[in-house]
Design goal:
Blueprint (H helix, E strand, L loop, with lengths): L2 E15 L3 E8 L3 E7 L21 E8 L5 E11 L8 H17 L7 H14 L4 H15 L17 E3 L4 E3 L8 E2 L3 H10 L13 H18 L9 H7 L3
Helix pairs in contact: 1-3, 1-6, 2-3, 3-5
């Protein structure tokens, strides 16, 4: 039997179902990743408690839901939009970063289990996405990649120093000499990773100076780090898009 709960959620994906309905993937604060059947939302009939505009990818919702652990499809009783992504052409960079963040998250989510701290991290990053300057936005994908991994059981150790300047991605830590394998980030780029590790707020990202080529190289290296720990780890379709939109 379904019970009623109040939870926040982040819309990850929507799929049309039938003529008027949607199946919506939402990462929730209370239940983790859930699938919701939303009937009749693609019609002209107005529902004051739930409408299709709320279910756009990247929106953060305050929801009242019916939940049954024995069912694979849950239902939403009502919802209110808390954070809305923007669709204007002038915000193409922000939307590209949004799609990248959500695609990486979905690549990592293998179980529906709830993880409240992960939800709060995602909520904070999405909230900051549309408040950031251009220089902060340019480094936001790297910040997100580095800090997201912690919630999935692997991370880069914050042990950079003048003696430990090589980032060994096999070990997930900075070491004193250049490893013999290829999965290593060498100075001076390794120091940029250390700065991103120590950044606690998006507002700090504008102080970290990287050009486009350096960001692209670091993203490639860090996604290889993910591929070592997340199985399977699919190639990100959104990666090519953010490569083209991020500023120098």
């Amino acid at each position: 039997m379904s019970s009623i709960h109040h939870t926040k959620g982040i819309v990850l994906r929507t799929v049309k179902y039938g003529e008027t309905s949607l199946v919506v993937s939402i990462y929730t604060e209370m239940f983790g990743l859930q699938q919701y059947m939303v009937n009749g939302v693609r019609t002209n009939k107005k529902n004051p408690f739930l409408h299709s505009a709320q279910l756009q990818t990247g929106n953060v919702l305050d929801m009242v839901v019916y939940h049954n652990d024995r069912q694979t499809l849950q239902r939403i009783k009502e919802s209110k939009q808390l954070i809305q992504h923007e669709t204007e052409v002038s915000n193409i960079t922000r939307n590209a970063i949004l799609l990248f963040m959500l695609e990486l998250l979905q690549n990592c989510l293998k179980q529906p289990d709830a993880h409240a701290d992960l939800f709060y991290f995602l909520e904070d990053v999405l909230s900051g996405l549309y408040k950031s300057s251009e220089s902060q936005l340019a480094n936001l994908p790297l910040f997100y990649i580095i800090h997201l991994s912690h919630f999935f059981g692997f991370r880069i150790m914050d042990n950079f120093s003048h003696t430990n300047q090589y980032l060994d991605l096999h070990e997930g830590q900075f070491v004193s000499s250049n490893p013999s394998h290829q999965l290593v980030i060498q100075p001076p780029l390794s120091e940029k990773i250390a700065q991103l590790l120590r950044a606690m707020q998006i507002a700090e990202l504008g102080e970290i100076k990287l050009n486009r080529n350096q960001r692209n190289q670091l993203m490639d290296d860090l996604l290889q780090f993910y591929a070592m720990h997340i199985h399977p780890f699919s190639k990100l379709k959104s990666l090519a898009i953010i490569r083209t939109v991020l500023e120098e």
